């Protein structure tokens, strides 16, 4: 009988100890659970790990302006999936699952809505007046490189900017198939 009592006592003590350790090991989770009445689950893997398996930052130039930047609206780091979305199982076959900038598959509004989730229109207008005119008509990626070490537009001279305006508006006037969602003025620059 004393062996049974000892085992029972040991079991009660062990379960109490485990309960105390679980509560003290995660005070933040316990606080959150008390507030919401449910547990907070945090993601263990980076949702961008799959992107980096194929798209290599050191080879493809995914750095510069958008690397290690913080979204001013939510104070979280900008990641691949913030701008491009999460790829589906058929991603490699070219399905419409993630945002591809300067791709006519996506409208100007769809492409620019991603940019405008961080870049506020008032700030863009103050930075350079053509943003007001073009934000609904031309994709942001038509003029801006998204992953280079230096965005070409930020180092362009005034004369270079005027040349881009003239070239693009000439193309628009002369080409009946002109598609502002697929314009890429930067590829034409020396």
UniProtKB/TrEMBL annotation:
Presence of keyword Membrane: no
Presence of keyword Transport: no
UniProtKB keywords: Oxidoreductase, Signal
GO annotation (BP), single: anaerobic respiration
InterPro entries: Cyt_c_NrfB (IPR017564), Cytochrom_c_NrfB-like_dom (IPR053875), Multihaem_cyt_sf (IPR036280)
Membrane-spanning intervals of the chain: none
Enzyme kind, highest EC tier: oxidoreductase
Cytochrome c-type protein NrfB-like domain ranges (all copies): 80-168
A GO molecular-function descriptor: nitrite reductase (cytochrome, ammonia-forming) activity
Signal sequence interval, chain numbering: 1-25
GO cellular component: periplasmic space
Pfam entry (one): Cytochrom_c_NrfB-like
The EC number(s) this enzyme carries: 1.7.2.2
Protein name: Cytochrome c nitrite reductase, pentaheme subunit
Native organism: Providencia rustigianii DSM 4541
């Amino acid at each position: 009988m004393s062996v049974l009592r000892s085992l029972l006592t040991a079991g009660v003590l062990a379960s109490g100890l485990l309960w105390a350790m679980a509560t003290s090991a995660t005070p933040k989770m316990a606080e959150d659970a008390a507030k919401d009445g449910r547990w907070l689950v945090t993601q263990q893997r980076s949702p961008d790990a799959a992107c980096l398996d194929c798209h290599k930052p050191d080879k493809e130039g995914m750095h510069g302006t958008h690397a290690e930047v913080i979204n001013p609206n939510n104070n979280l780091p900008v990641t691949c999936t913030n701008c491009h979305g999460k790829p589906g199982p058929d991603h490699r076959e070219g399905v419409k699952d993630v945002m591809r900038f300067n791709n006519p598959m996506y409208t100007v509004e769809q492409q620019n809505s991603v940019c405008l989730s961080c870049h506020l229109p008032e700030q863009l207008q103050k930075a350079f007046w053509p943003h007001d005119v073009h934000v609904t008509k031309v994709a942001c990626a038509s003029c801006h490189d998204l992953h280079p070490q230096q965005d070409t537009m930020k180092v362009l001279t005034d004369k270079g900017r005027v040349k881009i305006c003239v070239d693009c508006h000439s193309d628009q006037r002369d080409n009946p198939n002109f598609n502002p969602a697929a314009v890429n003025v930067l590829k034409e620059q020396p």
